[in-house]
Structures are given as structure tokens and as C-alpha cells.
Write a structure and sequence with these properties.
The complex is a heterodimer of chains A (1013) and B (378). Chain A is of the alpha/beta class and 1013 residues long. Chain A has 4 domains: 77 residues; 221 residues, Glycoside hydrolase family 3 C-terminal domain (Rossmann fold), CATH 3.40.50.1700; 182 residues, Immunoglobulin-like, CATH 2.60.40; 322 residues, TIM Barrel (Alpha-Beta Barrel), CATH 3.20.20. Helix content of chain A is 32%, strand content 16%. In chain A, helix 1 runs antiparallel to helix 28 and helix 3 runs antiparallel to helix 21. The two termini of chain A are 21 Å apart. The chains are: A alpha/beta (1013), B mainly beta (378). At the A-B interface, helix 1, helix 2, helix 5 and helix 28 of A face helix 1, strand 6, strand 7, strand 8 and helix 4 of B.
Chain lengths: 1013, 378
Amino acid sequence: MKLFSKKLWLILTPIMAVLMVVAIVAYAVTSFFSTAINAALNTTNFKQIQDPDARIIYEPLLMDDATLAEYEERLCEDIEGEGAALLFNKNDALPLSQGTKFSCFSQSSVNLLYGGTGSGSMSADNAVSLHSALTSRFGDGCINQDLWTFYVTSGYERVNASTTGGNQGQYRINEVPWSEYEDAGVASSFASYGDVALVVLARSGGEGADLPDDEACFTANGVSDYDSTEGDYLRLSAEEQDMLSHIMDYKQNGTFKKVILLLNSANSLQLDFLADYDFDAALWIGDVGMTGINAVADILAGNVVPSGRIVDTFLNDNHSSPAMVNFGAFPYANADELGLETAQNNTDAGVKKANRNYVIYQEGIYVGYRYYETRYEDYVFGNGNAGEYDYTADVAYPFGYGLSYTAFDYSDFSVTPSQDGKTFDVSVNVTNTGDVDAKHTVQIYFSSPYTDYDKENGVEKAAVELCGFDKKEIAAGSTVTYNITVDKEDLTSYDANGAKTYILDAGDYWFTAGKNAHDAVNNIIRAKAADGNIALDESKLCGIGDDGTGKKELAAKWNNPERDTETYSVSSATGNKITNRFDNADLNKYEGTADQKITYLTRSDWQGTFPKEVKTLSVTDKMWADGLTHDEDGESGRAALVERYKELYWADATELPTQGAEGDIDAIDMREVDYDDDEAWDEFLNQLPYSEMTALIGDGFHLTQAAPSINLPGTKDENGPQGLTASLLGGESAMAYTSEDVMAATFNRELVAEMGKCIGEDFQRAAPKDESQYTGIYGPGANIHRTPYSGRNFEYYSEDGWLSGEICAVEVEAIQERGVYVFTKHFALNDQEEGRYGISTWSNEQAIREVYLEGFEGSITKGGGLGVMSSFNRIGVVWSGAHHGLMTEILRDEWGMKGAAITDCSVMANYMDYRLGVLAGQDLWDGYRSGMDTLAGLDDDPAIVSACRLAAKHIVYSIINSHAMNAGHVEIIPAMPWWQATLLAVMIVFIVLTAASAVMLTVSFIKNKKKNA
Amino acid sequence: MKIKKWLATVLGCTLAVSTAACAGVFAACGNDDNDDEKNPSPGGETTPAYQFLGMMDDDDLSSYGMQCALWLQLDSDGTASIDKYSYLSYDASPAAENKNYQADFMVGTWEKTERDGVEGVSIEVGVKQEDGSMKGVTTAMAYNRGGKYSCELTIPIVVDMFDRGVEFEGTEGALYEDADEFITENALTFTPPANETTLTSDNGGTVYVQNEGKLLIYNGYNMIAEGTYENDGEGNMSVTVGATKIDVTVDADADTVSFTYEYALYGDYTMTFEFSGKYSEIPVAEAGEPEVQENVYTGTYNGQTWTLTIKDATSCTMSTQMGEFNVPFNGTYVKDEQGVVTVTCNPDNETMQGIWAGVKNVKWQLNEADHTMTAIAE
């Protein structure tokens, strides 16, 4: 064949053309997904030239890796040791002596719950087993090996929610049927290991999967088989009941001397079953983390005296909570008509709209002990239509409850207002009346007057609220004085209807030192009765355990003569005004819901307002326009909203800011610049081209992009609340600590701070020096245990917002001192997993501020937190990241946060609109812009560009306050990753070859024609 | 001659290198860090101590062609390896030439050990990197449960990005004699649909042209669309897929027929198929009516089209299109006197459960007249 053969080029040319097209398409497609591909291949589109003269700003701890690892293992044990709570201990069943022989029961005994599932999940591969822990503390041969092996080889294993895309239908207890014990003949081993039958009851939790609370949760997921009682996962299964019955039979016949219960769950089991079985002791241990079970063994052995206090109200009836009726995802009545969609994970088509469901926090502030103790008090005093309220039918153990191996007496309680009037000095003497040294937590509660003003203006008041605590070690027989400072600001209430700000009501305030919330209420009841000459009906009073029914000497009164609506109407953090921000989240205030009003639970009429059924809501035009809008064709819905946002929040942004200016100010130079030095920041930000700003804002899936124009290094972020654990992105796996409720249950700020320091250190050490550093942590979680059934309770501290704020503050501060910025999550009102994508969460402002925001507020105003992660759900109809009241007015104006607010995973979630978010105060998206880049082409829009600049500033501020700056004055050079370069080369080659082939084809035609001519 | 040879050599090398580069880039976008070991190792000197089979067969992975069989081999020298076979390829060719088989996808070690007094087999495997480091390391203990061993390992789909827990079951000794047997035992057989002729595209698409004006469009082994065609046998032909009429080019002289089909993948992304074939083999037909199958109903809910196929008195399949794949949900149904069907399904995979959650509360009013169904949401 000749070179100019027409036939040759007729064949080659189309081949080249097709290959060229393929290469072009491949290059274009892969470029579109470049961020995701880079993440998968661990490549970047930049090159970072290190600064040889870099000065280490955040020094690592002076420990080698092995020492640090060992230290963290002990720290995890310490946290578990101080967080595990002893619920009862009959006849001093605990501690146990050396040489005790154990028969460990339940398949969970060989498969403990170390943590939950989901993005913050941990690998249990190297976690300490119960076998190992008990053996190390009680000696070799202490475990009934036959029984242990029986469970290991039984084939029965608890089924947890899946890590990637859980749902309620997945949970299985899967306890071994008793018939299997008989078949295996394992009962013959009990007698030789009869000192203790140690029963482990475990319940898992997971991201995306609330715990099923009834049969409907299973059938709704197309599942007809389940093993929990009436579909309620937090009740015993039939197999568990059978197992316990048989164990008790063996106890009765003397085979087992003691039966000890370990509650291995961050979701509180319904404890009514305790009355049915003769347990000798019960210890709540939460999720134990990698090594925490060693501490549990230490508690059993008496090496550690238990000092934990439960951070939720443990119930005999989990469904007694007023929140339970409104727990779930409820579709709007006209959802089908409007084509509304839902999503349970971001591979569902509905994730683009995610506007189908709602939930109403009808209980208001009455969550957890705020409900139980308040209704109890009103029942005792005959107030508020409390009815014949049976407290102990609902409550097994109150918030703050926990026993010790010794006992403590309180005396000499006093409260002294400080001279400046801003605080109260609360003092109490605590005597260890027992024989062992022990740590003890004093809890200070206060009671605010429930006045006529409150009743008229819908200000609800809990009977008691935690406002202070301290933990000390007290030697046996000794007395220690606790002096605890209470901020007067913590006594305020939010008045959303009258003053529209925080108020300090006029009237009598009571303080008490209580051993738990119920003990506190009883003290105050006694004191109020004595003070007001009220005759108490003693039959109405009840105590838990040995607490008794209160001592008036442990309560003190302070009177506020006049209602104060001014002092607390400005933020103590920033000096900015505090006023209503969530009228559009309250069904009774938001004009969009028209006449669809709600009656919130009120203590002025318990029975009349207790939630009974879910209120049906329909979407109105205004609700649609204000946030539920989605774009079927084009952009009409959200585009109109974008314009409205510009008018409302960026009306002054009329001039287009400078972009991409020449300059030599590097990001690290801004460390020396005050955050509020607008001129300096403007000069710096002027250097950023729009493309770099939007890349920084929009492509933040577990990382931040490098920005060459300002030499901002790229960084990495990782989960999670239990520490730097194994996650969806793999990465480095360090120590996994206990579940967050165990951390809070320690009531030990120093211990939590130490853990925070180590978590930050783990992040510092996570990446090699010349790679992007791990500088941001997704966690801790600060949402609320609104009910026991939320799938992620293991990642949140408590049912109490104030305690969450206190613990979160110390953890956040400690992590950040290591140069790691914290994204406390999920901001806000993400207290359930069901329907979390885009669910409309309706609540009133008082509850939002006093319960659900307190954890975040503490992290920022007390802990100096640099960041938050906004939530999937909507506040009212507005996605949280696009809620200006939340993201700017609260977060920045009131609380003064300076760093970046990141979204929750935004991949494919179009409803998390970039324009609306940046205009509202959202800075960074945990996702990719692909398929939803609504910022594209808006570089000539003054409001958008201004908002993007602010977002960029927040992101930069976080990064320059991190250990990424240890790299010094890095130089960021755009670079094409190898895969992209290869594809580009291939594309060019085929373009050239196609062109060459076309030329040769043409030439061959001409030659052929000439020849034929 | 020399120029010709030189040109041919250059072109050939360029093609080869470019194709290899493209293939390498796209392969690297998965988790195939062991590209250089696609073929099984030659017969070793060790003997199999234990072998396990694990199936990564989550329904959601079928949409991406990522279902696979995993052969965990623990050899007498203490080495462990997992070979992977992507059975959705329908490629049962021998391991040595089978592109869908990967030897040593994961490697590691094992040992007999005791944990908490129970004897078992400790396994650790990971994906070996070019520099010798390991990523995606997963460990498990396998215990003897009545002569069978089982364990769960975390298998990467994309290393450091996505993974799945896979249950492995096995025994002492060998499960398969060799890699070829592993493949053949797990291979699927593709049966093409009945057709009078086919049109093909360069990117693996096939149109099965059936009688009575019906046609089926496949991407590889998966049907992506059904359509109809009209052909007068004189060069006039049209094709309709769904509501879209597609231009068809017929060159009667060359006896060719061709048309372009754009297949929507996700979002704005489409896959383009340029089909062509012999015109003379296309039956003459009027546009066929889409075949109405008596036991099949189609409806829409929440923007998603669902198809109910009733199999017998109690069982059925609900299916929906996800990307290029038709995703089925097998379950049971109850039909009341008004023809309202309630379907119960129990997907055992979390992502499938998530998809099913979208219709779990929906009942369907069957419309016998046109075999559609209307969603009734609770």
C-alpha cells in the first residue's frame, strides 16, 4: 500500500477522528470530575514548594508515636473509667475480688460496642475485648472459656446499621436462642464459673439510621422480620428475655452467685425490665472506644471507683417523652401534588430537592429532664394540670445519676452573689462517708420563677436546669469544699414573644447542689415549701435509690427584684444585639404557614397540651417561595430567592470587588493581621481570582483547595467525634475514644481537654510532612439527645444543651491549641437521622436557643471554636446553610465566630445551593461543584462576589490558624495531575493525528484524481 | 516503502501507547493498584491451607458494574491473597487472558492464632502500592463454625474512598483448583434477546432488532432502552425510543443503516452510541406497539419510574432505572379487590434499602387498560 493511498487514509482518518472524539470527551468528563478523581487517586492540581526557613508554629507534643499511642490508650481508659455510671449495687455486690470467675453472657459480650457506624465509625480490629480486659484484671482462667467459645462460634452476631447508608430496618439484636445453649451443652460449665454471670446488653447506633421504636419502622423499610420487642430496638428481644430468665433460674439454684449487668449503648435502653430480673448491680458503660473496657474491668475489680453520671434521663418508658410523638419524618400533605421528594442518602434522586418532609418540636424546651422533673414538681405542687403524674413509671434513673463505692454527704450549702453582680459563688461541703477514696461530681442546678409574665408571653421554665459542676477526689472520711461559679447569664430565659431577647425574670431563683436532677428538684421543692409555708403531700414525693426526697438545707434563694430585659439583650461575646432570628422556624410566627398553628407543650397545662399526634402540614406558596422551591426547568424558583437574599442581606454590595489583582501577600502573612482590619483583608482578598474563590468554597470534600494567588496551602479534613478514626475516606486511624456521652458523663473538664489535645495531636501526625496536612476535624457533635432513638446519639453529648456547651468548649479549645480547627456539627437542629436531608424542622426560638444551640454556643463563645458544620435539615423551610439568621446573625454577630462554616456532605445535593449559602453566611461545601455549580459565571455579580470574598476570608482564617502554617511561606504552583496530563497528551496526539490523517486523505484524493485524470 | 514502514510503525506505536495510557488512567480511577498483575501467578509451590469465597454483590454496585466475586486464598507459606473476578462482564475466558479477572487484588498474611482463648485464623490483607506500602488494610478472625469458616473483611471499591464489608465463607483446603475454575464457577451467562439482526456501536452498544417493529438497546450486557422502529424496506426507516423519535440514515446502495442514540447517565451526562448495521437485514415492519406484558405495570412516583412485574400469586419484582442499569427489587405483593397493590420488599443492602425507602409507603392502583399504575402515597 502506498503512502498516499486513498484507501489507507479512508480507513485511518475516521479511526483517528473517533479516537480523537473519545479522548476529548474523556478529558472533558474527567476534568469535570477532577476534584473527585484527585481525591480518589490522592493527586492534586497544585504543587506545594516548601519553605526551607519555615518556623514551627504549632509544636508537636514531645512524645514519640509509640509513647503517644500508649498514652492515648490510657486516656481512653480514664475517660471510660470516669464516665461509666453505676446505677445500682445491691448489697455491695461490686467491687469483685481477685479470683472471681465470670460467665459472660450475650453475643455482645464477645462483640462489644466500641462506637457507632457512619462517617465517624471506628475500626474495632485492635480494640480490647471483654475477655482480655477481665483476664488482665482478674487473672488467667477467670473467664468461662466454654461459654466464650460458644458465643464466638455460634454464628449469631449483632447487626449494626451499615456505615454507608444506614436505615432503621437494618438493626438486629440477634441474640443466641437458649435452645442453642442446650444443644451445645454449655450450661454444664456455669457452675465452675459461677461467681458472676456478667450480662452485656448492647445497642448500636449509626449515621443515617435512627433506631426503630416500633414495628412500623421495620415495615416501612420493607422488612417484616425483626427481633426486638414490638419492633422497639431499645427493649429486650424475646431471646434476651429468655436468656435472662434462665440466668436468673441459675442464680436461684445457686449456680450463679451474682448477676451483673453492663449496658453497652449510647442509646438508653428502656429499663423497665430491671424490675423483672434480680440483677445485683448494673453499670452503664456507653460505647467504650478502643481500650475503655479495661476501665470497666477496673471498676468491677475496684481498682477504679465509679464516678460517672448519666447525661440522659434513663426511662422505664422510652415513649413517655413528649418528643416521641413528633419523632420521624412526616411528609407534607400536598407533597405528591407538588412533586416533593425525599432522600435518605445522597445517591437518591430526591436529594436534589429534598423538600418532602417535616418534623415539629412541639415539646419546646421540655426535652429530657426538663420535662420529667418539671412535670414532677408541678404534680407535687398541684400546678399546671399535671394530672396524676407517676414519675417513677416514666423515669428509672434521672439525669446526673450515678453511684460510687462510697457515699457522700452534703452540708453547708451557700450561694453568694458576686460583687459585680455577674456571677454567683456557690459553695458546698462534701464528705466522703465511706471507706474508699473516690472522685465525686457536685452538680449545681437552678430554678427560675415561672411568672404570670411568662405565662402570658409563652416563656417556658424548667423546674431545674444544670448551671454548674465540679469534680474532685475526696479521701475516705474527708470533707472537701466545692466552690463553683455560676454565671448569672446562664439563668436567663429567651422571651421570643414579649421582649424578643434574653430576659432575667423577676422573682425568686433557687439554687441547689443535687446529686442528680431529681435530687435537685426535691431539694428545691422542700425549700420552696418551707419558704412559702406550703404543706407538702409527702405521698407525692419520690426519690430514686437512696437519695431520699430532698433537703431544704441544700437549696438557697436569690431574689431578682425586677425583670431585666436589657442586660442580656446584647451578646456578651460581641456586644451585638440579640433578638429573634427564628421566627421563620416557628409555625406560630411564620406567616408562610398561615393558619397552620401549633400548640406547644406548656407547663401551665400539661395534660391539655401534651403532644398526642403529628400535626398535618401543607406547603403554602410562601413556604415554597421561601425555601422549598426546586427547579424543574431552569432556575426560576431558586433564582428568585437568590435575588431576595441579595436585597435582604447584601443590599450595600453594589460595587464589584477587585478580583485577581497582582500582589505579594501570602496567606500566612495574614496571621499577623487582626480579623477586623478590613483594609488589610481587602488588600489581601483582592488577589484572589473568582475561579480560585469558588474552587475554595465549592470543592471542599474532606479538604480545602490550595489557592496559588495567595499561596494558601491545600489541607485535609477528617472525622470525627470519637477521634481520628477510620472513616469513609480511610486515611489514618488513630485512637478511637468512647462515645461522646461517656465523655460528658465524666463531668471532668480536664480529662476532656486532655483528650482534645491528643485528638489534635493525632491530626498533626496524620500526614507526611510534604503532603497536605490534616487540619480540620468534623466533630465533635453537639446536637441533642432529643429522644433515645436518634441514630447518632453516640456522637452527641447529652440531652442537656448547657452541659453539651461546657464539654464541647473544653474539647474544642484543646483540639484547636494543637493547630486543628474544629467544625462542631451539625449546626443545627439535626437531632434525628430519619429524613435528615432537607427535612423542615419546626421549633420555637426559646427551645432552639436554650436547648439546641447551647452546645454550639459553648464551643464558640467559650471554646473559641473556629468552625461549625451546618446540617442537612432545614430550619423551617430554609436549608440551615442558607439560613441567614443562623449562619450570620447568630454565628457571627452574636457569637463572633471567625472561621469557616462547612456544609455536611453536599455531593449531588442541589438544594444546598451555593448562591443561597454564600449569601447567607455558608463558607465551604463538603462536596464537589460538579452538577450543581450555581456560582459559575457570576464573577460580575457584586453581591455574589462580595459574599464569596467573605466566605474565602473565613476559610483562610481557619487555615492560617492551623498547623498548615508550620510549612511556612509555601509556594503554590498550579500543576496538572499525572492522570490529567496523560489524558491531555493523548487528546493532543489524536487531534494531531486526525488532522494529519485528514491532510493525507485530502492529498491522496488530489493525487488520485490527478492520476485518473 | 521505508517511509510507509516508518509511518506505520509510528502510527502503530502511538496508537498502542495512547490506548494503553487511556486504559491505565481509567483503570487507576478504580482501585486497581495492582495493574501489573492481571494474570494469575504461575502455579506456586505452596498448598492451599484455607480458601474462602466472598461475594460483593450489593445491588447498588450492579449499577456501576462493580459486583464481583472474591477468592480469598490462605496458603501454607502464610501468605494471603484475594483474587477478584467481575462477573458482570459475562466473560468466562481463562484467567490468563481475562481482563475482568485480577489476581492478587489484595495481598497479605495469615496465621493460626488464638484470640480470647478461641482458635481461629487471623487474616490481614491490603492493596499493595507501587512503593510497597499497603492501603486499605483489613483484618479479621475466621473461626471454625461446624467445619466452615467465616469472617468479614472490608474490601475497597475505591481505595481510601469507598469500601464494603464482605462476608467470606470457606473451608480448609481448596475451594477451586485454579483461577480458571474460580472464574467459570462464578461466571454469568449472557443470553442475548431474540432478534432478527443486530446493530452495533464501537463503544459496546448493541441494538437487537426484533420482529414487529420492536427493538432493544443494550450497553454491553445490560438493556438500557426499549423502542420501536418502522421500516418500509425501501430505505425509509424511523426509530422511536420512549417519546423521542430518532433520525435514521439509510444508505441503500451501501446497505447500511445507522442512527445515534444518546443515553442519559446521570445529571447532564449522556453516553452516545453510534449504531450501524446492515439495512437489508432489518425486517419490514410498521412501528410496533410496545409489547404489553400482562403481568407488567409501569408507574411514576417522586419523579422516578417504577415497573411492577408480577411473577406469581404472591411474588413480584419492582424495578427502576438507575443510570444505565435496571435495578430490581424482589418482594411480595398483596392486591385488593380494587386492584390496589401493596408491595413489600426486603432489600438486604443498605443502599438498596435507601432507594426502596422512596416507595416503601406507596401503594399502586393498577390500571389494566394500559398497564400503567398510579401511585397512592400514604
